[in-house]
Design goal:
This protein has 5 helices and 3 strands; from the N terminus they run ααββααβα. With 123 residues, the protein is of the alpha+beta class.
Protein backbone atom coordinates (compact mmCIF):
# COMPACT_ATOMS: atom_id res chain seq x y z
CA UNK A 1 0.00 0.00 0.00
CA UNK A 2 2.78 2.44 0.87
CA UNK A 3 4.66 1.82 -2.39
CA UNK A 4 1.49 2.69 -4.31
CA UNK A 5 1.30 6.05 -2.53
CA UNK A 6 5.00 6.63 -3.08
CA UNK A 7 4.55 6.04 -6.79
CA UNK A 8 1.72 8.56 -6.95
CA UNK A 9 3.78 11.13 -5.05
CA UNK A 10 6.71 10.54 -7.44
CA UNK A 11 4.49 11.11 -10.47
CA UNK A 12 2.82 14.19 -9.01
CA UNK A 13 6.16 15.72 -8.02
CA UNK A 14 7.53 15.07 -11.53
CA UNK A 15 4.55 16.85 -13.06
CA UNK A 16 4.72 19.80 -10.67
CA UNK A 17 8.49 20.18 -11.03
CA UNK A 18 8.13 20.43 -14.80
CA UNK A 19 5.83 23.41 -14.26
CA UNK A 20 7.99 25.01 -11.56
CA UNK A 21 11.21 24.77 -13.61
CA UNK A 22 9.66 27.00 -16.26
CA UNK A 23 9.23 29.77 -13.66
CA UNK A 24 12.81 29.77 -12.37
CA UNK A 25 14.63 32.95 -13.36
CA UNK A 26 18.18 31.71 -12.70
CA UNK A 27 19.98 31.88 -16.09
CA UNK A 28 21.79 28.60 -15.38
CA UNK A 29 18.39 26.90 -15.46
CA UNK A 30 16.22 29.12 -17.66
CA UNK A 31 18.75 29.43 -20.52
CA UNK A 32 19.04 25.64 -20.87
CA UNK A 33 16.29 23.22 -21.74
CA UNK A 34 16.06 21.34 -18.41
CA UNK A 35 13.60 18.51 -17.95
CA UNK A 36 12.85 16.30 -14.97
CA UNK A 37 13.20 12.66 -15.98
CA UNK A 38 12.13 11.09 -12.69
CA UNK A 39 11.69 11.62 -8.97
CA UNK A 40 12.46 9.09 -6.26
CA UNK A 41 10.97 9.81 -2.84
CA UNK A 42 12.07 7.87 0.23
CA UNK A 43 9.43 5.69 1.96
CA UNK A 44 8.99 8.24 4.78
CA UNK A 45 8.53 11.05 2.16
CA UNK A 46 11.20 13.23 3.80
CA UNK A 47 13.79 13.19 1.03
CA UNK A 48 13.49 13.26 -2.75
CA UNK A 49 16.08 12.60 -5.44
CA UNK A 50 15.26 14.55 -8.57
CA UNK A 51 16.84 13.31 -11.78
CA UNK A 52 17.16 15.95 -14.49
CA UNK A 53 18.53 16.06 -18.00
CA UNK A 54 19.44 18.87 -20.34
CA UNK A 55 20.19 19.00 -24.03
CA UNK A 56 22.32 22.14 -23.77
CA UNK A 57 24.55 23.52 -21.05
CA UNK A 58 26.90 22.13 -18.45
CA UNK A 59 25.20 19.75 -16.03
CA UNK A 60 27.32 20.99 -13.11
CA UNK A 61 26.21 24.59 -13.67
CA UNK A 62 22.60 23.53 -14.06
CA UNK A 63 22.83 21.54 -10.83
CA UNK A 64 24.24 24.60 -9.03
CA UNK A 65 21.34 26.67 -10.35
CA UNK A 66 18.80 24.09 -9.20
CA UNK A 67 20.40 23.81 -5.77
CA UNK A 68 20.35 27.60 -5.36
CA UNK A 69 16.66 27.63 -6.35
CA UNK A 70 15.76 24.63 -4.18
CA UNK A 71 14.17 26.81 -1.50
CA UNK A 72 11.81 28.35 -4.03
CA UNK A 73 11.10 24.96 -5.62
CA UNK A 74 10.37 23.39 -2.24
CA UNK A 75 8.07 26.27 -1.28
CA UNK A 76 6.12 25.90 -4.54
CA UNK A 77 5.86 22.13 -4.03
CA UNK A 78 4.49 22.71 -0.52
CA UNK A 79 1.83 25.01 -1.98
CA UNK A 80 0.70 22.58 -4.67
CA UNK A 81 1.15 19.16 -3.04
CA UNK A 82 -0.95 18.23 -0.05
CA UNK A 83 1.73 16.57 2.07
CA UNK A 84 2.43 16.87 5.78
CA UNK A 85 6.14 17.28 5.18
CA UNK A 86 7.61 18.65 1.98
CA UNK A 87 10.62 16.51 1.06
CA UNK A 88 14.15 17.87 1.07
CA UNK A 89 15.36 17.98 -2.51
CA UNK A 90 18.59 16.68 -3.99
CA UNK A 91 19.29 17.05 -7.71
CA UNK A 92 21.13 14.43 -9.76
CA UNK A 93 21.95 14.57 -13.48
CA UNK A 94 20.41 11.78 -15.55
CA UNK A 95 22.62 10.57 -18.38
CA UNK A 96 20.25 7.90 -19.68
CA UNK A 97 19.23 9.93 -22.76
CA UNK A 98 22.85 10.44 -23.82
CA UNK A 99 23.62 6.80 -23.09
CA UNK A 100 20.69 5.71 -25.27
CA UNK A 101 21.85 7.99 -28.09
CA UNK A 102 25.36 6.52 -27.83
CA UNK A 103 24.04 2.94 -28.00
CA UNK A 104 21.85 3.90 -30.96
CA UNK A 105 24.84 5.34 -32.85
CA UNK A 106 26.85 2.17 -32.14
CA UNK A 107 24.02 0.02 -33.49
CA UNK A 108 23.81 2.15 -36.65
CA UNK A 109 27.58 1.73 -37.16
CA UNK A 110 27.22 -2.04 -36.85
CA UNK A 111 24.31 -2.06 -39.31
CA UNK A 112 26.17 0.05 -41.86
CA UNK A 113 29.33 -2.05 -41.60
CA UNK A 114 27.27 -5.24 -41.92
CA UNK A 115 25.47 -3.94 -45.01
CA UNK A 116 28.82 -2.84 -46.53
CA UNK A 117 30.22 -6.30 -45.89
CA UNK A 118 27.23 -7.95 -47.60
CA UNK A 119 27.62 -5.74 -50.68
CA UNK A 120 31.27 -6.76 -51.15
CA UNK A 121 30.38 -10.47 -50.84
CA UNK A 122 27.75 -10.25 -53.59
CA UNK A 123 30.31 -9.01 -56.16
Amino acid sequence: MASYRRGRVNEEMTRELAEILREIKDPRVSDNFVSVTSVDVTPDLKYAKIYFSSITGDKKDIKKGLVSASGYIRKRLAETLNLRVTPELSFLPDDSIEYGAHINSLLHKIESSASDGEDTNDE
